[in-house]
Structures are given as structure tokens and as C-alpha cells.
């Protein structure tokens, strides 16, 4: 069997040093669509090093790529076909603002491995800390199609109730045709997002946008729309990837204010509001 749950859960944590610069942050921000209009003061907070603030979702690529997807597949006890892998969800807890440049120790471990029958879900937890203490904790939920059925724990099944009433704000956000090609330069080289042949073999009509790109685009919209453009106010961010986005489409981002949190739902406006992000909550100060 490709998955040995006991072996994966018993695997030792992996630690390594990650380093990033302002250039890495700027590239990430451009990859999630920052910089339009190019001279807008609000956009320059993401695109000009002399004013740079860091959107916390940068943590998912800090050091050269997402710690939860590709590297999780090299965990002892896990051996799967990359074409059968999808990023099912992502959560992030921010312990303090992410600096524009830094060096940290990132420690990753398998925090859960669940048997959904038709699939398996691998939860990889990454903690990052620098000389001043903890920076962030991220959980990547990796969906492994066709790899369930070994009789293991099905895992948590509770989900938040959908937000009620009309959204406080709705933003339509275009996705550029080349956005996946630019975003992948931050370190997620999965050919599903660039190679048409690979995408077709994986069951998609064409390459799809990275889920973590949509994740970053959505957080930026929330920060800019409801948090006064202050990325440092974000405390946590959790979502479930409910559907794919194709480059060239338009994201419709609906936001509901709450007590210390913003509820969010994201859909593909061009495909009859097909769900893209669900169960999405941004915690903030």
C-alpha cells in the first residue's frame, strides 16, 4: 500500500533553516496580483521595498515554496502519484508580524492522516521561529485521491455554519492569464499549474491556479477592504479549497464582518458562482 499511516505519524519532525529577502516578498505579492494600479499608495505597500509590509500568507512560501504540499509527499510512509494530489485546505496562525527579510527555523511534522474512504487527507504542520521566538504555525491539509480505504480514523467532520445575511462587502477580482506562471516562481513547481498535458492527465481541462495563490489573493482583499490595509492586524486565516480556479477567470469574494473575525466565501464569477474557497475565516485584532 502506498500509505503506511503508522509510519507517517511516527516520523520524526524535520527542521531546516529558511531565509527570505524583500525581493522574495515583492515577488510573492506580485504573484497574488498586487500592483494594480501600479502607482496606487495602497498597492505600493506591497510592491515598493521602502514601504513594504508583508501579507501573512507569504508564510506559505517563505524560504522557497509551500512546506505543506510537495515536501509532505516525501514523508516516510507516504508514496503517491503527484497527479493525484490536491491541496485541500490551509490554516495559518500568525504569532507576530512577518518581517520583510529574515532567517528562521521551520519544523514540519505529520499532525494527522485520515482515511476518507475514497481518499486520504494528510495534515502537515509547520512551525517557524527566529531568534526572537515563534513567527507562525501553518497546517496544510493535503488531499490524496484514491489513497484511502485502509480503515483508519476519518478525522474531524465538523464545519462552521455558513455566514448569514447579505455580505458586508463583495469584491470581484480578475485573475490574470499568466498569474499561475508568475506565482509558481515563489516555489510551487507542481506542473499541474503550468503544463497542459499534465493538467489533462490529472483530470483538468487546462492548468489550474494554485490554491495558495487564491488564498493570498483573498487575504489581500480582506486586508485592503475591511482591515484598513494593515496586514499586521491578521492573527489567523483558515480555509477549505472547495474548487479550482482557471487563470483568466474572475474571483467573487464575499465578506461578512464579525467580532474579531471576517467570514469569507469565494466563488468563480464566470462559472455560475462555482465555489472556490469555503469555511473561510480571517481572525484579526
How would you describe this protein?
It is globular and about 55 Å long. Strands 1-3-4-5-2-7-10-9-8-6 form a 10-stranded antiparallel sheet. A hairpin with a 3-residue loop joins strand 3 (102-115) and strand 4 (119-130). Helices cover 18% and strands 34% of the residues. The chain has helices at 5-10, 22-31, 41-47, 179-183, 196-201, 211-226, and strands at residues 14-20, 85-94, 102-115, 119-130, 133-145, 169-174, 234-241, 250-257, 261-268, 274-284. The chain contains 6 helices and 10 strands. The termini are far apart. The protein has a single domain (5-151, 160-284), classed as Thiol Ester Dehydrase, Chain A, CATH 3.10.129. By secondary structure, the chain is an alpha+beta fold.
Question: In a nutshell, what does this entry contain?
Answer:
This protein is α+β, with helices and mostly antiparallel strands and 285 residues long. It is built from six helices and ten strands, in the order αβααβββββαααββββ. The chain has a single domain, classed as Hotdog Thioesterase (Thiol Ester Dehydrase, Chain A), CATH 3.10.129.10.
